Amino acid sequence: MALGLAGAALAIARAVLLAEVIAGGFAGEGTSTLAGPLVGLLVVAAISALAAWATEVAAHHSAAGVKSALRRALLQRVAERGGVGERAGALAAAAGRGIEALDAYFARYLPQMALALAVPAFVLGWMFPLDPLAAVIVLVTLPLIPIFGSLVGRATRARTARRWQAFSDLSAAFLDSVRALPTLKVFGRSRDQIAVFAALADRHRRETMGTLRIAFLSALVLELAATISVAVVAVAVGLRVLDGGLGLQAGLTVLILAPEAYLPPRRLAAEFHAASEGIEAAAGILDALETAAPAPPGTAPAPARPAPIEVHDLVVAFPGRPAPALDRVSLRIADGEYLALAGPSGSGKSTLLAVLLGLTPITAGEVRVHGVPLRSLDPASWRRLVAWMPQAPRLFHGTVADNVRFGAPEADDGAVARALEQAAAGFVADLPQGLDTPVGEGGARLSAGERARVALARAFVRQAPLLLLDEPTAHLDPITEMAVLDSLDRRRGSCTIVVVAHREAVAARADRVCRFAAGRFLPDELGKR
Amino acid sequence: MRGLLALLAGTRARLGAAVLAGAGTVAAGVGLMATGAYLIVRAAEQPGILELTVAIVGVRFFGISRAVLRYLERLSGHDAALHLVARLRTRAFAAVERLSPGGIEEERAGDLLSRLTEDLEEIEQALLRALLPTVITGITVLGAGAVAWALLPAAGYAVAAGLALTAAVAGGAASAAGRFRRGRLAAARADLATAVVDLVEGAAEAAAHGRTPDLLAAAEAADARLSRLARGAAWVNGAGSGLVALGSGLCLWLVARVGLDAAAAGSLDPVLLGALALLALSAFEPIAALPHGLLRLPDGAAAAARLDDLERRPEPAPDPARPEGGALTPHLEMHSAYLRHRPDGPWALAGVDLRLQPGRRVALVGESGAGKSSVAQVLLRFRDLEAGTYLVGGSDARRLPGEAVRRVVGVAAEEAFLVEGTLADNLLLGRPEASPADLRRALTAARLDGWVEALPLGLGTPVGRRGVEVSGGERRRISLARALLAGFPVLIADEPTAGLDPETAAAVVSALLAGTTDHGLLLITHGAEGLEEMDEILVLDRGRVAERGTHRELLAAGGRYARFREGHRPGAT
Fold first, then answer.
1. Is the confidence at residue A525, as pLDDT, over 70?
2. What is the pLDDT at residue A315?
3. Which of A103, A441, B461, B561 is buried most deeply by CB count within 10 Å?
4. Which residues of B touch A45 (CB under 8 A)?
5. A455 close to A393: Cβ distance less than 8 angstroms
6. How many CB atoms lie within 10 A of CB A158?
7. Which of B448, B555, B198 is nearest to A394 (CA)?
8. B126 with B300: CB under 8 angstroms?
9. Does the beta-carbon distance from B39 to A231 stay under 8 Å?
10. Strand runs (DSSP E) across B192-318, as ranges?
11. Are B180 and B236 in contact (CB under 8 A)?
12. C-alpha span between B391 and B402 (Å, rounded)
């Protein structure tokens, strides 16, 4: 608000000083008698420069501070929740694009808001005693700006939404056409597609222009209200000066001030769209921050061996899903057992692994390790016993070795190399920098099968007595798959192994196969060896 | 920057209209204030009302025309920008068409496309918010300077120099800020994005491995770095705005001073003093938005450079300048073929020999990345070999147009791409003139006839992005029917069974074998189906042929192939 006051004061001071100079010059005064207002103009220029600079710096500083604080709070939430559950995607979106959208709101909309409130109020207050008529003209037309502004905003928002739809349709068509190119090239038809695409792009251009023409027409009304009222003020002031009802200096001050009153609200209207995005983003972020914190973790130290594990009538239901992911599942996993979980995708196999890890809260029923409820164990000490490879493993920013070592930071190069060998990751030797090759964001420089093997090595390097593997060979060819299964065989007995298997080759090696369907075990397969 | 300007060449007329309307808007705004001031000062001389009529009409005219011209400016500016973007989008598409698929690394294709879309937007914004305002500012410098000069030469110089200097200084600050934004700030932002994505998408794994605090600390450190740099950037940005305010204030002061002196000396009519001062004040309007707009310029220039780079990228398998004519006999031979995907990468093919002709069936097996798809790309002449030869009908493939090679050899791809349209449109892609009887034969051969008959709309069923759901097995059989209908003498079947359950996989392969009895066939597969029927099986390993022979020979040899088959025997342990 202080900035708004400063902006209003500077605008008024400049108008008064300039009017004094012009009126003085007209009356025949020279630079010596007008030295005061001239110096005043210089001072106003200097202060305006400082104010403009300070406004920008203050706005961006506070925006940066707010963004940083919100982002840290969000990241803290993400870390607390372990990324499991329905809100993970929303949190990620809020922490990324959502926070950036706040920039427009905090750095541009809010400062402009202060100016849009303060400047017209003070300018009108100054104008009124000088020329009530001009002040009334401005006072009457000024509300047209926010009224038309919000009308324009509402109309444009609907049209912008439609325009965005058209734009994203076009982008999708572009992507589709490009994906179709190899196919079309095989059939010698790809060059025809250029003309087809050119016609599509042109049609999009014409449609967009159509909507813009209407959107800009509404903006024209707004513009007319602002400039015509300045013209009306100029003529009215001129006529009053002519009949002697108003002094020259007062008249000039009013003329110079009139457009100043309209400028901040017009700029505010221009920022309205960006700001509404920011407000929506802010609502999303606050919403994400309000998600309930998970239940406090247990504190009992984990036993030395991770099995036997008993699962009693386990139910896991996710909010917003009609059917529970796991529905009264009971199971006993013996120490050193090699167990395969089979069944169609979505039948609850991966959820069971997440429960065993302690990542997914239990809705009903119980999981006991050596007779102790899993939820009473200290998660960190329990997870030291577990190695897990998820279905879609995540590779982190860094090298292949960094990613293997993610499972065991203290592992030396030899252990990393051995783990990779057990995971049949011979391809690492062919990478340009071997173990030290960066994997790219999310492992983008590796194929799905290569990423799976790095993640498998990450699980192996932990030397944990409980191995939870979710479709470890889904992206591997049969020869590599066999090598991986051989490595698992070598751990038989010393480790308890639970593997989610789509393929028969994997299930065939296990001591026992549990088959799932829709969150339950198929009874005829229960206990089958 | 030069690249950006070169892109504008085809849009000159529309850009000219936008510049005219923009300059007109500024002129009307300046005119409104200057005539307004003249009107008021002249009124103070108490002339007759008729003396003021011209000024009154002028004020009203400028007030209305400013709003109308502003509308026209917006309209013509966006028209020019949209026209440019539509043209560039088509050019980008043509560039990708030329390079696809051999010249674009598959894993980066999605990346490239999303960047292209963003690049076009950057170019549009750079045009609207940086280039057009800069040109309009230039015209304002000349126009406002000339009008002021006509009133008082010294004031003309002051206005022109003040405007030009302020614009230059603001532009300099903006370009410094832009460099900062593109350089360190962009790097910090990318680092933070990586850290956030790692934390969010890897949260479960981090929790399971007890590494969450490390990832959180990394993300917070990246956030702190970004905030620090953003605060630094605000100083530079603020400097731009401050310099514009300072420049306009100084210019106003200077014009007032020289005006007062001239009025005192009698070389300026004191009535014009107000008009002159308000001209100087309002001519700065277009510059106010310049510092923010110019921030877009480096991004736009970089986007233009990337587009240019895409258009200049060498074609992976260029057509020969003087192609060999005549019909090609469908005899394909590859001799000690060598190929890499990157100049410093590992060999994708390292000495592969392969022969294909109608009636001969060859299978390629091996792990993913062993070079199977590279063989297909070379056979289709999507890529040329680095060493070794590829002969089509006895001629070096390099001396043949790619399209001629692809009339001899075609592919039924792993993931059949279905274009927008009906099922019939998709099938006829390879042979638009095919008769309904041909179509039926192809459908029967691909074992697709039953499925099509069960569809309510039959061959008229819409498929593609907005069409009906097509399962993986159906998709592969559509691809097969399409390739069979096209009648390629030699057909490559790329992973026809990947991701299918065993029954569907067997049905697809038996359809493939039945449909290609008098064709040449290259079966690229992860599965075991149909390998007994092959004249030769090649086991690829890191681009080399590790084993070759018939199914029986390879089983007897007891090597990798034999082991691979054991894994596929039902009930094997």
1. no
2. 87
3. B561
4. 245-246, 248-250, 252-253
5. yes
6. 11
7. B198
8. yes
9. no
10. none
11. yes
12. 13
Per CB-CB distance under 8 Å, the chain B contacts of A509 are: 573
Query: What fold is seen in the domain A2-290?
Result: ABC transporter transmembrane region fold (1.20.1560)
Give the C-alpha separation, B422 to B425, whole Å.
5
Structure confidence at residue A97 (pLDDT): 64
The whole-angstrom separation of Cα A348 and Cα A325 is 5
The residue assigned the tokens 């008082």 is B152
Q: Does domain A309-525 have CATH number 3.40.50.10540?
A: no
Q: What are the residue boundaries of the structural domains of chain A, listed by start?
A: 2-290, 309-525
Closest residue of chain A to B228, computed from CA coordinates: A64
Q: In the structure, what pLDDT confidence band is assigned to residue A293 with cuts at 50, 70 and 90? A: low
Cβ-in-10-Å burial (0-12, 13-18, 19+) of B182 comes to: middle
Q: What is the DSSP letter of B272?
A: G
Structure confidence at residue A362 (pLDDT): 83
Q: How far apart are CA B507 and CA A498, in angstroms?
A: 33
Q: Is A50 exposed, middle or buried (0-12, 13-18, 19+ CB in 10 A)?
A: middle
Contact A482 B563 (CB under 8 A): yes
How crowded is residue A434: how many other Cβ atoms within 10 Å of its Cβ? 13
Q: How many alpha carbons lie under 13 Å from residue A236 in its C-beta half-sphere?
A: 17
How high is the ipTM of this complex? 0.77
Chain B: residue whose CA lies nearest to A89: B200
Q: For the segment A31-64, what is each residue's pLDDT rounded down to a tens digit?
A: 889 999 999 999 999 999 999 899 888 888 888 8
pLDDT at residue B572, as a whole number: 38
Enumerate domains of chain B plus CATH numbers: 2-195+222-312 (1.20.1560.10), 332-567 (3.40.50.300)
pLDDT of amino acid A522: 67
pLDDT, tens digit, 9 for 90 and up, residues A229-272:
999 999 999 999 998 889 999 999 999 999 989 888 888 877 77
* Res A286: pLDDT: 77
What pLDDT score does A529 carry? 39
Distance of CA B523 to the CA centre of its chain: 34
Question: Going by C-beta distance under 8 Å and a sequence separation of 6 or more, which residues neighbour residue B531?
Answer: B363, B365, B523, B525, B537, B551
Query: For B183, which DSSP code?
Result: I
Cα–Cα nearest to B394, from B319, B327, B331: B331
Within a 10 A sphere around the Cβ of A433, how many other Cβ atoms?
11
- Tell me the three state secondary structure of residue A366: strand
Distant-in-sequence, close-in-space partners of A102: CB < 8 Å, separation ≥ 6? A63, A66, A67, A70, A278, A281, A282, A285
Higher pLDDT, A207 or B344: A207
Residues of chain B predicted below pLDDT 70: 1, 105-111, 113-114, 368-369, 414-415, 465-469, 499-501, 567-573
- In the sheet that holds B332-340, the strands lie side by side as B347-356, B332-340, B387-392, B395-396
CA–CA min distance B271, chain A (Å): 6
